[in-house]
Write a structure and sequence with these properties.
The chain is an alpha+beta fold. It contains three helices and six strands; from the N terminus they run βααββββαβ. A four-stranded mixed sheet has the order 4-5-1-6, covered by helices on one side. Strands 2-3 form a two-stranded antiparallel sheet. A hairpin with a 2-residue loop joins strand 4 and strand 5. Helix 1 packs antiparallel against helix 2. The termini are far apart. The C terminus is likely disordered.
């Protein structure tokens, strides 16, 4: 049995921007990811590339493999069993890690945990009043909180 990386209920949160990717970054992307980036316009392309390079580098660090070796994918949708829109998952290497990735306005946010569903959401323009929701949902900086920038 593998060693647990996270205390029960804990997650690491990573924040990044397109400038986080150097010229070597896109080499770790799959051909499908590179094709998707090519279809996007400048800022969206940079954001997408940065998010997926960051995702691969971070997951590779947790898993002890090179970023280009990580194979992200999806699991079956828990509602309808469609693999096209199920939760994200690491396809290879086998792991108990879970993750979720969100992008908005050039930034990206990645949450990583273990053995539990995880969701993150990044909004360019919040649709809710943070003062009203702060007592319910908060993000507290801790040793397990990381800033990729």
């Amino acid at each position: 049995m593998s060693q647990q990386r996270f205390p029960a209920g804990a997650a690491d949160i990573w924040l990044g921007v397109p400038e986080d990717v150097d010229e070597r970054g896109p080499a770790v992307l799959s051909s499908a990811e590179r094709n998707r980036v090519r279809l996007l316009r400048d800022r969206a392309a940079a954001s997408c590339a940065a998010a997926h390079v960051g995702l691969r580098r971070i997951l590779g660090g947790y898993l002890g493999v090179e970023a280009g070796e990580v194979r992200p994918g999806r699991t079956l949708c828990p509602e309808c069993a469609d693999p096209a829109h199920g939760p994200p998952a690491v396809v290879w290497p086998a792991t108990r890690l879970t993750f979720n990735l969100s992008r908005a306005d050039g930034f990206w946010l990645l949450g990583v945990s273990e053995d539990r569903p995880l969701g993150v959401d990044l909004e360019a323009e919040p649709r809710i009043d943070p003062e009203l929701t702060a007592p319910t949902v908060t993000a507290v900086a801790s040793p397990n909180t990381h800033d990729w920038s």
